[in-house]
Design goal:
The protein is of the alpha+beta class. The protein contains nine helices and eight strands. Strand 3 and strand 4 form a beta hairpin. Helix 3 packs antiparallel against helix 5, helix 3 crosses helix 7 and helix 5 packs across helix 6. The protein is elongated.
């Protein structure tokens, strides 16, 4: 009994036993819990969370990139363009659903620019971790409206806009509870924004590199689109820009018909603008024109508009005419067996 008592009081023996007790045979009892097994579920959960936040980051960058492309193209009036005099001859029934939507947006540059700024703002918020939830919310709302318009006006990119709207909703999931609490008027609590890695070196580098790259991506894309459009600068309006009704004796045009109306666009780039011709048989022919210094106007015309047409077309008719403007503002076009007033 005394030996057993001394053995139990021996600190070395206690250390060797690992703080356990001996069984009746004098062997040490096994631990109830393995430390390695105890840590495994927590480690797996940590890896899973970091993988999910990595996917969240990649989806943020992808969505922000597409929003910047479509946003800046609207801000600089590239996607829908601008309505000019040549569009005045297009009748309601001659427009496809997509053409109607495009002309609606092109008629008001302010609406198009505001729609583009909303997409650029959503991209800007997405590029920063602290405001990503707000960018996701704006992106979901913006692209949800775009998807609905594309769906109802039969715009070909309806699938992409739907995916972008869904991406915004997915990115909003970590903060969805906060948003719901905000809607019902309850305290939202702190935002949810996880880290891909807690490594000190990684955190120190990304703390400054990530915002700088976000700013470069945001500003750089705007500069690229601005340079592509020469920052929205246009040439001076040509002398014959306007919408005209043909009077007097008209001779046969390129397609053995007579022109009843002519519209020369005022939005000129590189001395080229759009033109539209309406014929006596009701058909419409569009194209482009350019004017040089010696009162010459050069016409390049697409095929007569019949049904829906693609954005990329080839010219089928060309002519070089001389124009003269009298004191009353009437224009006379002559040349190549063509006389139009």
């Amino acid at each position: 009994m005394q030996d057993n008592l001394r053995l139990n009081e021996d600190p070395v023996a206690d250390e060797e036993d690992g703080g356990g007790c001996r069984n009746g045979n004098g062997s040490s009892a096994a631990r109830a819990t393995d430390p390695t097994q105890a840590r495994s579920p927590g480690k797996i959960r940590m890896i899973t969370v970091r993988v999910l936040w990595t996917g969240h980051w990649l989806l943020r960058i992808w969505l922000a990139g597409y929003l910047l492309i479509y946003g800046w193209s609207k801000v600089f009036l590239m996607q829908m363009g601008q309505a000019d005099y040549s569009d005045a001859l297009v009748q309601y029934g001659e427009m496809s659903p997509m053409g109607l939507l495009w002309r609606f947006m092109a008629f008001s540059p302010s609406i198009q620019i505001l729609a583009g700024l909303a997409e650029v703002a959503a991209a800007a918020f997405l590029l920063f971790r602290r405001t990503a939830w707000l960018g996701a919310l704006l992106a979901a709302l913006n692209m949800g409206i775009v998807f609905l318009l594309n769906l109802t006006f039969d715009v070909p990119v309806k699938q992409l806009s739907g995916i972008m709207a869904l991406a915004g909703i997915i990115l909003l999931i970590p903060n969805l509870r906060r948003l719901c609490r905000f809607v019902v008027g309850k305290p939202t609590g702190a935002r949810v924004a996880g880290l891909i890695s807690t490594n000190r070196i990684f955190v120190a580098i990304t703390r400054w590199a990530a915002p700088l790259l976000a700013i470069a991506m945001l500003v750089g894309s705007g500069v690229v689109f601005g340079n592509m459009t020469d920052w929205g600068r246009l040439d001076a309006q040509s002398a014959i820009a306007g919408v005209y009704s043909v009077s007097g004796e008209s001779r046969a045009d390129f397609n053995d018909s007579q022109i009843t109306q002519a519209a020369f666009g005022q939005l000129s780039k590189e001395r080229t603008a759009a033109v539209g011709l309406r014929y006596a048989d009701g058909s419409l022919q569009k194209g482009s024109y350019s004017v040089d210094g010696d009162n010459k106007v050069r016409l390049k015309l697409y095929p007569e508009q019949k049904g829906s047409q693609g954005l990329i077309r080839d010219y089928v008719d060309e002519a070089t005419l001389t124009f003269a403007i009298d004191d009353s503002g009437e224009i006379t076009l002559t040349g190549e067996a063509l006389t139009r007033r």
